[in-house]
Amino acid sequence: MSESSTATATPTSGGYLNALGAYGFEAIETILLAALVTEDPLLLIGRSGTGKTFLLNTLSEALGLEHRHYNASLISFDDLVGFPYPDDEREKVRFLQTPATIWGAESVLVDEISRCKPEHQNRLFSLVHERRVQGIELSKLRYRWAAMNPCGVDQGDAEDYLGSEALDPALADRFALIVNVGDWAQLGQDDRRRIADPSGEGVVANDRGQLAKQVRAWRAQFEAELAACPDVIIDYACVAASALLEARVRLSPRRVRLLTRSLLATSIVAGEASEIVFESALRHSLPHLAWGQEIDEEVVLAAHRMAWSTTLASPEERWLHQFHLHSKLDEKAKWLLEGCPSPDTGSIAIEELLANEAPARAAAFALAATPAAVAGWLPLGAEAVADLGRLAEGFLAVDGEIRWRERLSEKGTHHPGLVEVGRVLRRQVGARAERARQLLYGCLVEKLPLEDPRELEMEFNRCVKVFAKAARQ
């Protein structure tokens, strides 16, 4: 909500926007980050001066995007695409480009979209929905964002935004998430002071790449799960849409699909499929605010409660879904030890982890978990224990490094990742060093891809500590 203060702090959990100097957005941060994960269109609605434009421009800086910022109340379509001219053969039309034209953009912000001329709103349909203009694909465009002041019944008595008209419902329906940005009254005291501080005005957002790295990780998980979206998420979206329709609040079929995507992404960002996460995703997926229609709070809550109780009532299913939403191996280990409903559920979780994780990560989890599993300290059935043991067996060499070096020598001298593995191992001592050799040399021998050996070793070590704690208890 403000461009004040410097923006170089490392984010803590839930503090990615604060680290960029964008304050006052904590209540909607998960939803905003989910929009970065899905890359679906995002619309911010709020009073003037609430930081909508600053936030979106800041996100483009933090993600290192080729960004375009247009004021919809002033722009002509030629400003967007350039001036058309025929090619040399006079068979095709080309566009004379400028630094402001949309070609080559990775993110686009259409500011003041509610002040856009009706004919320009029509032309924005394909840009927002299809990443196209004039029928031409914008191959580099990832993010389509817009911002507007309240319209119609959303305007209060104190401020009347003349010219801020309701969006065409067809255009509004193209935005996956519609977020109402809070004003001064919704800010805590700390955020008020940060926003009032002018010392950091003009500072380029710089969190040392933390947000960009995390968005890439979330995006990879999102794409993997999207290929087989959990039934509970699909069912929740369907039940919620039907319950809203009974209350005369219509969601288009396209909107229900966008809701499903947003539910999945929000769960991934939050690290859990909790009731508050699903309610927030549903609330911010309703486009009616953009065309000036207020929906009764009780109607939304009733639809959410109906969908939640119908689709996510099973403790086993809820636990299993949240197990897979945890992105780190040590987080999965903690979740396995904390409240697993039954050995059967734990076994399903392990089987799905071993099948779906990258081979090196699956091996790391198996190597860390096997001693505790064999000792009977984990809530697992015999089959899951055996599967962990079989995967870990090849890594549990008694003579450790000597055996792996012999096998590496037998298989040839060139092994991708060997140099980086050596750097990682030089940093370790004692028992941690021996465990790291077992894991990393084993991955090399088995030719398992190692994207980031250092990160894998750190995650593996944290996982070992989790299971060791279980042994002590």
Summarize the topology.
Elements: H1 29-38, E1 42-45, H2 52-62, E2 67-71, H3 77-81, E3 83-86, E4 93-96, E5 107-111, H4 118-130, E6 132-133, E7 136-137, E8 143-148, H5 169-172, E9 177-180, H6 189-196, H7 210-226, H8 231-246, H9 253-270, H10 275-283, H11 297-311, H12 315-325, H13 329-337, H14 343-356, H15 359-374, H16 382-393, H17 401-411, H18 418-426, H19 430-445, H20 453-472
Helix pairs in contact: 1-7, 1-9, 7-9, 8-9, 8-11, 9-10, 10-11, 12-13, 12-14, 13-20, 14-15, 14-16, 15-16, 15-20, 17-19, 18-19, 19-20
* Mean pLDDT over the full residue set: 86
Number of discrete domains: 3
CATH architecture of the largest domain: 3-Layer(aba) Sandwich
Q: Regarding CATH, which class of the largest domain?
A: Alpha Beta
Helix coverage percent = 40-55%
Structural class: alpha/beta
Order of helices and strands: HEHEHEEEHEEEHEHHHHHHHHHHHHHHH
Question: What is the count of helical runs?
Answer: 20
Annotated CATH topology of the largest domain? Rossmann fold
What is the overall silhouette? Answer: globular
Largest beta sheet: what is the strand line-up? 2-5-8-1-9
* Beta strand count: 9
- Bin the strand percentage: 5-15%
Explain what this protein looks like in three dimensions.
By secondary structure, this protein is an alpha/beta fold. The protein folds into three domains: 18-207, Rossmann fold (3-Layer(aba) Sandwich); 219-318; 328-472, no CATH class. It has helices spanning 29-38, 52-62, 77-81, 118-130, 169-172, 189-196, 210-226, 231-246, 253-270, 275-283, 297-311, 315-325, 329-337, 343-356, 359-374, 382-393, 401-411, 418-426, 430-445, 453-472; strands spanning 42-45, 67-71, 83-86, 93-96, 107-111, 132-133, 136-137, 143-148, 177-180. Helix 10 crosses helix 11, helix 12 runs antiparallel to helix 13 and helix 15 (359-374) runs parallel beside helix 20. The chain starts with 28 loop residues before the first helix and ends with a helix. The model is unreliable at 2-13 (pLDDT under 50).
